[in-house]
Amino acid sequence: MSTPNIRPTQMANQRRSQRILLSVPLRVSGKRANGAPFVEHTKTLIVNAHGTLMQLQEPVRDGQSLSIRNVITGEEALCTVVDLSPGADGLAEIALEFAQPNPRFWRVSFPPTDWSTRSPEAKRFAASPISVPAAQPKDPAVKK
Description:
With 144 residues, this protein is mostly beta strands.
């Protein structure tokens, strides 16, 4: 995967949704320049609520409409090619944008940050362990 030469803080301020490195199997379909249909199986490199970055062997053009199917869920979405760049292994890296934002397409969910043991909230409770009195063994010789 190629890495753009852009300062991370500059790009972070421009992103509409957080990007996640995630490999999801996809079935991509569209039409070639001559009108013939194509189907290619690939996987995502990066996903977000607005689309994905993936590699394709099939030549596509900027602005081209494609359909993607999440192989795991069977869900389909219409997308537009918004960026093309040379990638590893001679495959082009293709950025796709959903026709409509679709954060549920990838079925990604994350726990709240305070669930992490590294969160300041969690550390506050870790400093004061809960003490539970130990059970006293019963002496059979003692009767009540």
